Amino acid sequence: MNFVRRQRFGKVLVSAALVWVGAAVLWAQSTPASRPQTAPAPRASSPAPAQPQSSSPVRTQPASTANTQAAAVPDQAAKYQAWLKQYCISCHNSRTASPANEPVNLETASLTNLVPHAATWERVLRKLSVRAMPPQGMPHPTEAEYTGFTTWLASSLDRAWVGKSTPGRYVVHRLNRTEYANAIRDLLALEIDVTELLPSDGANFGFDNIASALGTSPLLLERYLTAAQRISTMAVGDPNVRPGTTEYPISREFSQNAHIEGLPLGTRGGTVVNHVFPADAEYKLFGRLVRGVEEGYAGVESNETPDTFVITIDGEEVFTAEVGGQKDHEIQSKDMNEAKALVDARMTGKVFVTAGPHEVGYTWKERPARRQDVWLPAQRDSQEVHMIGGLARLKTVGVEGPYEVKGISSSPSRDRLFVCKPTSAADESACAEKIFTNLARRAYRRPVNAADVEAPMTFYKQARAEENGSFDAGIRAGVARILASPSFLYRVERDAVGVRAGTAHPVSDVELASRLSFFLWSSIPDQTLMNLAVAGRLRQPGVLAAQVKRMIADERADAIINNFTGQWLQLRNLESKVAPDILMFPDFDDNIRKAFRRETELFFGYILRENRSAMELLSADYTFVNERLAKHYGIPGVYGSRFRQVKIADPNRRGLLGQGSILSLTSVATRTSPVFRGKFILTTFLNTPPPPPLPNVPTLEESNKDAAPKTVREQLERHRNNPVCASCHRIIDPAGFALEKFNSVGQWREVTETGAAIDTGGVLADGSKVDGPIALRNAILSRPEALATVLTERLMTYALGRGVEPADMPVVRSIVKKSAPTNYRLSSIVMSIIESEPFQMRTRLESAEPTTRVAQSQERPVSVP
Amino acid sequence: MIITKKHLSRRTFLRGTFGAAMALPMLDAMVPALTAQTRTAAKTPFRFGAIYMPNGVYPDTWHPATVGSDFEFKPVMQPLEGFRDQLVTVSKMKAPWGESVHLGASSAFLNGTGPVGARDGSGDAFGKLESKKTLDQFIADAVADDTPLRSIEVGTEDMGTAVGACDGFPCTFFNALSWRDDFSPLPIGINPRVTFERMFGETGSKEQRTARLKEKQSLLDSVMAETSKLRSTLGAPDRAILDEYLSNIRQVEQQLDRMETRLGTITGTPEAPIGLPEAFDDHMTITYDLMHLAFQGDISRVFTFMIGHEASDRGYAHIGIPETHHSISHHGNDAEKLAKYAKLCTYQIVKFSEFLDKLKATKDADGNLLDHSLLYWGSGMSNGNQHDRSNPPAVLVGGAQGRMKGNRHIEAKEAPTANLLLAMAHLSGAEIEKLGASTGRLDL
Q: How close, in Å, is residue B203 to chain A by CA atoms?
């Protein structure tokens, strides 16, 4: 059954593609000259809102004179066909079509009928835009010839798509788990640890918000139910909850020698957690110490002066206890178990806490340095499990309870949820309806109808009617029902009434509001945005631009910063992938790892929010550091755990290529990896990812059994003497070698791990000679439109939740062109994407009348009021 | 409290050597509650488990030198010697390339195919997901019966922390060994706590658990009605997506119904394990323990366990290997690295053998759990240095209800791995004619 269904799906796409011509309607309106003669496109007659008017919408038609150029096309095409033959076809032909595993055949690709071969030509364009072909050593065109061909090809492709492309195919789009968590935060003022509730999502095209990759499985759906039940309970509170324990472990790689951001000044180490308390009650808050290899608690022995353990609630000190000192030393050296019980009990405080989320801090009072009693040659020595002396530090913290429940006074979740309070039993039902109407409108991101409210009301009534059922219990059940609804879990858009299949039309303002909020906030629209959309004002002059500006400034826009950099720059891998060898890098701890990520996020966020040039991603002479990171880089004069902007004096350190995040992600445990670094740069900044490795490649090592190479460089040089390896590594490695003076944790060095001299010299694919980070950066920045293009493509993929196709490339190019005069300002690129047709419109794929009732007929009859 | 985390022993990450069994008291405590499930000899269920090892195993350290019975174990497989009588190891097979250097290895492991369709560069922005139904699902069709979970898919890491590593394919191919049908991947769950809750329901008193389950059932009914209504107002591509959603809802519904009938027999209030253990060794142990419990309590008869995803960057510092799994598999024929590669693989075989020990020690009808199970441990490549698809490791352990004769090393003469998959299907009572590139059934 499933198979049949999917086949039909595939067919629909094909047939829809044949009628894409209808999408020409918008261009037809604006430039009659470019309208194809053969396809008189119907005007989208619909109540759909007018097309975007804020600033100048990005159009996909070529700048001008389509008609006059059209006549010249065959001549030009013939000329360039000969040109390709001269420079490209000797390798990219029907016989060899190299590279072997991603073949390119330029012999059969037509220059006069571009659309069927658009994917190939876009690849050609990417390579030639950064002059990555022909390979060094082969005859090269002149710079003028390069420019001539790429300009001609780009504008020919743009022209070829006019009337044939579609501005946007949208399908129902499941919220990924980041979006789910953010939506819960914005709906119910609850910070949830979504990794404990939902499985991770599939990703594609480099991002995890891609509609087609967000399938469902029984595991996921089961968890959606569990999540709905738990979250509704947390939001409403539960005075009858049985006492339980929640523990928050602290990574053993996290050093606790200095102040931790988020905790009060004058404290050292520890952690701060956002815990949701189910009721006003007594809770046992506790910390547990790291244990050494002999099971004794670290920090208890060999300290003359005790440490003071502190617990804070929302920044206020609520509990202290002394640990260590002479007496504890004696107890622990005599009997570890006795000491353990004693210390555990002492580090548990019973505290009254009100319901709802609170920031609970567990930390230590800072002592004057001379009384720290600690010798600390390297950061990670403090994590050494054989040392049970040293500073007391926490392994885990937690909350146990509730005990002696007093009820539920109020909490941010309840304040947000209970928009009314029944004063009598007769009021209850009306109030419940009001609560669900309000919640469903925000959760479903649209005005609600009677059925939307009936469903949670059914659950409300049932729970209310139960023995011991209260108003709160009823509300909880209704909230669970709303959170389990497909209207919450899926972003659903509808075709405008009366639009023919294959025709594009602007999405409604309400749908646009969701596209905006999920792009910029990875969450639901807020009231301001929703109200504008519902009133139909979102596309009034100036409104959209003002909203985007407001949204980017809002702290919820941290979502685009963190999720986009987390994936485009792979920062999410820092935790799983970056594990430098402890003996070689004894100062590398989890604090530095977190600081790396923070630095790059703050850096990208600054460029976005201040609308600075995207070129500063590589060229900026500033970055963001705290004391630990500044010391790591050798930047003087930075004190404290707070991150701040600093000027970079050393030109080698500028931009992303000088940041520890990128440099450590592209290294392995014991050394740097010029190959990983080269591949990262080619893929991320030059848009020319090297082809994947071939099956069963003959290994390099087998040919070097006689004399082992002394350095990575020597090894790779041999690699490149092997023609099979060389075809890729000649292009990959030089960019990596240029960064060799940054070690695997991003510190500057003059010799390798093994003490060998470092040679950073090399020749990039475009022939430019590089000898270090500065030259590499300049080589990339010498073609700013290429960097702007890859960034726009990636942002567009993230914005649309689908892969960017050849048909979208005219839009990408127009955005890049439009942002060129202002040096590619990042926020302006984001705005252009929002104004573009793919973001503003959807294409009706086929008529909405169901053609089959197969799925329904299998359903059990269900009675819903 | 709503989300409970219980901490595991802090001992584990301090241990310098591997192999020492770690008791998990909260799980062992459940055993008495579960023994009520034990079936009568007349209807002893067949169990199947497949365990996937990423990044290959160096063939010289694995495949025995002689064919037939009474072969001598090579070092990596050595810890399985105690199971010789119920063990068959197969060499000289050919694994399919599966479209991609790493991803192809794991995604073809249980269906001999891997991704169907091309990389994303081909221009379909919908990134179609298509593979082939996998062996474990054919077996589940045959043996699952009324178990609450038809099958369980687990792992220790997913692509949530490995962006940019999916070789241009949808990452789901990295995250899933198992496909319910050609279009429905069953991604792994990596959180033991989540797996536990799937198996046993929520924690709390019996009344609370029952109430939660009942509410879930009503939620499903109500949501299904809403979805059908929504579906009827949408175009075909959207309907196809909601159909998938609906079909999964139905599966959960059936699962909850089966769970409901079991709820009465699970007594006591089991304590759930912590979420994601920090120490990898804990994560391995607890995952195997959960699979043991699934078999023992007859909660599921089929599982797939992805030890790691292909090209895993998991560190094995806890056994003295600072390099990551993937980087050590590219050993470059360096003796020291080869030794570490072998040590890492041996560690995994030790973990496997601990699991087998537990199965063997658990009484089941007229014998023990291992007598009635078939466990398949293998990889999609042999020498990770070259991503070599020839001669991958494949070892079968278990009595398979007396259907498999042990103590044998079979040379498959370049037969596709799919032939072995067909043979396992046959052993399990799932009669299928063809799977992936199969050319016939390997004679086990």
A: 11
Q: Which two tokens stand for residue A639?
A: 């004190």
Tell me the CB-side half-sphere exposure of residue A117, using CA atoms within 13 A: 17
Helix (H) / strand (E) containing B327: helix B325-329
Cβ distance A244 to B4 less than 8 Å, yes or no, reads yes
Q: Taking the alpha carbons of A532, A537, A539, A541 in that order, is the dihedral positive or negative?
A: negative
Q: Mutation target for B interface from A190, A193, A197, A221: give the one with most B CBs within 10 A.
A: A221
What distance in Å separates the CA atoms of residue B51 and residue B352, rounded to the nearest whole number?
Answer: 9
The residues pairing with A749 across neighbouring beta strands, listed in sequence order, are none
Q: From the list B185, B250, B278, which residue is nearest A251 (CB)?
A: B278
Tell me the ipTM for this assembly. Answer: 0.88
CA distances from B206 to B28, B269, B311 (A): 20, 8, 43
B16 touches chain A (CB under 8 A): no
- A178 conformational bin, left if phi > 0, alpha if psi -120 to 50, beta if neither: alpha
Considering only residues 320 to 349 of chain B, which have any Cβ-Cβ distance to chain A shorter than 8 Å? 322-324, 327, 332-334
Closest residue in A to B98 (Cα) is: A695
Residues 6+ away with beta carbon under 8 Å from A458: A481, A864, A865, B222
Distances (CA, A) of A762 to A713, A736, A766, A767, A773: 11, 9, 11, 9, 12
The pTM (predicted TM-score) of the whole model is 0.88
Query: How big, in percent rounded to 5, are the helix, strand and coil portions of chain A?
Result: 45, 10, 40
Question: How far is residue A614's CA from residue B282's CA, in Å, rounded to a whole number?
Answer: 44
Mean pLDDT by 10 residues, chain A (865 residues): 37 35 36 36 39 43 42 75 91 84 85 91 94 90 94 95 77 94 96 89 90 91 95 90 86 86 91 93 94 74 84 96 88 86 94 94 82 60 60 89 92 95 94 98 97 97 93 97 97 86 89 98 98 96 97 98 96 89 89 96 98 98 97 95 96 97 93 93 93 64 55 77 80 94 96 88 93 96 96 97 92 97 96 96 65 33 33
ω into residue B416 within 30 of 0, thus cis?
no
| Mutation target vs A (from B239, B259, B274, B329; most A CBs, 10 A cutoff) | B239
> Chain B: nearest CA to A498, how far in angstroms?
13
Which of B153, B203, B222 is most worth mutating to test chain A (most A CB atoms within 10 A of its CB)? B222
Query: Shortest Cα distance from B363 to chain A (angstroms)?
Result: 30
- Buried/exposed code over A118-130 (b: 16+ C-beta within 10 A; e: otherwise): bbbbbbbbbbbbb
Q: Which residues contact residue B16 at a Cβ distance below 8 angstroms, ignoring those fewer than 6 apart?
A: B320
Cα-flanking dihedrals φ and ψ of residue A249, to 5°?
Answer: -75, 150
Q: Taken in order A638, A641, A646, A648, is the CA torsion positive or negative? A: positive
E-strand spans in A754-853? 762-763, 769-770, 841-843
Provide the sign of the torsion angle of the four alpha carbons B49, B55, B61, B67, taken in this order.
Answer: positive
Radius of gyration of the CA atoms of chain A, in A: 31
Only one residue has tokens 């999917």, namely A6
Determine the Cα–Cα distance for residues A217 and B149; give it in Å rounded to an integer. Answer: 13
Averaged over successive runs of 10 residues, the pLDDT of chain B (444 residues) comes to 30 25 39 43 83 97 97 98 98 88 92 75 53 96 93 90 72 91 92 89 78 94 95 87 92 90 64 77 94 92 96 89 90 92 98 97 92 97 92 97 96 96 96 92 92
Q: Which of B334, B349, B333, B398 is nearest to B139 (CA)?
A: B398
A351 touches chain B (CB under 8 A): no
Residue of chain B whose Cα is closest to the Cα of A230: B2
Residue A566 forms contact with B (CB below 8 Å) = yes
CB contacts, 8 Å: B245 with chain A: 216, 221, 486, 490
